[in-house]
Amino acid sequence: MIYFDKVSKWYNDKESVALENVTFQVAPHEFVSIVGHSGAGKSTLLKMLIAEDRPSEGSVFYESLDIHRIPRGKLPKFRRKIGTVFQDFKLLSNKTAFENIAFAMEANGRDDSEIAENVPQALALVDLEDKAWNFPHELSGGEKQRVAIARAIVNQPDIIIADEPTGNLDPIATYEVVQILRKINDLGTTVIMTTHNKGVIDELGRRVITMDSGRVIRDDATGKYVL
Ligand code: ADP
Ligand code: MG
């Protein structure tokens, strides 16, 4: 369970208000899309969840844990519960697909035998077994994003956060990425995704939270994209 309790975030002495009194919950295993115009506060909201930045007011809970009261030393352990995917993939250019995924496991203290077992499983989940030894520049945008998703799930997080994961992709790659996120959700992982893409929302038919100027203005149980 994720719970945003009256969260506000402002920058530069309230000159820029990114979130205003945002309250919502996400139950385990949900697939939630967050939509809204550029600047609506979507990325800021996700940053609060991975404790990359702090609310100016309000609290964010993961189960009974107040995320912004976690001692600094315990943050890495908390962050392991969350896999992240970004619009620009953030792959390491000097590592192959396999090595990019393996690197996330090494950073997590996993040993070679686990890596040898779990990386191929993650590659299979995103249907990229045949591209394991390709470098990012040898992959299409859609393939790069699928490697990034494999990296995000390889440590078996409870939650996947995807910030505009299809923002740089063509319609076919977009469809494939959404299908993979849906499959990961069906396997039990909570997914929270921001998107601008009405087609993606309609295709998913899942919960949609609409933001405008830092506020939640709609929360629809089944996919409506109204902007
Ligand atoms: P979205 O992801 O919906 O496009 P953001 O969450 O990135 O929106 O930004 C929401 C608002 O907060 C915007 O007006 C943005 O300019 C502002 N903002 C975000 N980060 C900062 C920052 N570090 N400093 C100042 N303003 C910021
Ligand atoms: Mg954003």
TrEMBL record:
Keywords: ATP-binding, Cell cycle, Cell division, Nucleotide-binding. The keyword Cell division applies. It comes from the Bacteria. One of its GO terms (molecular function) is transmembrane transporter activity. The keyword ATP-binding applies. One of its GO terms (biological process) is cell division. One of its GO terms (cellular component) is plasma membrane. Residues 2-227 form the ABC transporter domain. PANTHER family: CELL DIVISION ATP-BINDING PROTEIN FTSE, IMPORT ATP-BINDING PROTEIN. Belongs to the ABC transporter superfamily. This is Cell division ATP-binding protein FtsE. It comes from Candidatus Kaiserbacteria bacterium RIFCSPHIGHO2_01_FULL_46_22.
